[in-house]
Design goal:
Elements (H helix, E strand, L loop, with lengths): L3 E2 L7 E4 L5 E5 L3 E8 L2 E5 L2 E5 L4 E4 L5 E6 L4 E7 L5 H4 L5 E3 L3 E2 L6 H10 L8 H16 L4 E3 L3 H17 L6 H8 L3 H10 L5 H16 L7 H7 L5 H12 L3 H11 L3
Parallel strand pairs: 1-3
Antiparallel strand pairs: 2-9, 3-8, 4-7, 4-9, 5-6, 5-8, 7-11, 10-12
Helix pairs in contact: 2-3, 5-6
Length: 266
């Protein structure tokens, strides 16, 4: 399965680590993951990493990544943030990629470990300023100890952001590779290569992933029928919707909807 675009409702999150695997995805913000207990298996780009307590992984914007496996006792800190939140490091995230996005625990500094411990005791909603201050310390401890390579110039990085933003906004409309390329003023081949080279998928599969992700959210509304959801997600008929849904999730829409109703009874 290729990466899908996670259109996060919030642009900043600093808090505890997820306890569940999460499929390959990208987003326009950066992410920092530091386990303090247990292990996390992540794929970042094309490489799978196993994070142990004290290791730190940083995911740059628009880099495909997934949480593949978490130990039952996993604990730690996750920060998802727009690079501009700390201006000193915004340039690092713009046009560069780390040679290796994981800093092992033996290379971390005392200040970093203290900030991780402190963040584990704070609540972002109540202590936002302190959380951002400790995120600053974390980024200083991690980013200064990584080596980088230039991958895209500023114009290419900005174009990637523009492509993802446009596609996520229009995925549930009638959209094709040709119409999207015309709307953004780029060639069809350039757009096609962006998805194959950067997203590790093709244009149509990326569109379907966004649509199915929206469909799964809509299924939590008991007032919506599958036909309603099919229409809202841009499919012209139920047959196409069922086939796309099963391709992405491995279940028919009706089967997944029943699972949701069993888990969240009204």
């Amino acid at each position: 399965m290729g990466a899908f675009y996670e259109n996060r409702p919030e642009k900043l999150f600093i808090g505890g680590m997820t306890h569940y695997p999460f499929p390959l995805h990208v987003h326009s913000v950066a992410e920092l993951v530091v386990p303090t207990r247990g292990t996390v298996v992540m794929t970042i780009g094309d490489i799978r990493y196993t994070l142990s307590p004290g290791d730190a992984a940083v995911v740059f914007p628009l880099v495909p990544h997934s949480f593949d496996r978490m130990s039952e006792d996993v604990e730690g800190i996750t920060a998802i943030f727009p690079p501009e939140i700390i201006p000193e490091y915004a340039g690092t995230f713009h046009g560069l990629q780390p040679e290796t996005p994981v800093l092992p625990a033996v290379s971390t500094c005392v200040d970093l470990r203290l900030s991780v411990d402190r963040l584990g005791r704070l609540n972002m909603d109540e202590d936002l300023a302190l959380c951002v201050a400790h995120l600053h310390v974390l980024l200083a401890g991690v980013l200064h100890n990584l080596t980088y390579r230039p991958v895209y110039d500023y114009s290419e990085q900005d174009l990637g952001q523009r492509i993802i933003s446009y596609i996520s906004d229009h995925a549930c409309e009638e959209i094709t590779l040709e119409s999207a390329s015309r709307a953004m003023g780029i060639s069809v081949s350039h757009l096609s290569h962006f998805f194959s080279d950067r997203m590790h998928t093709n244009f149509r599969r990326f569109i379907n992933a966004i649509r199915i992700d929206k469909a799964r959210l809509l299924m939590r509304n008991p007032e919506l029928t599958l036909t309603d959801i099919c229409d809202r997600c841009g499919y012209t008929n139920m047959r196409t919707f069922r086939r796309a849904f099963q391709q992405e999730i491995g279940l028919l829409p009706s089967e997944h909807q029943q699972q949701i109703r069993d888990r969240f009874p009204t």
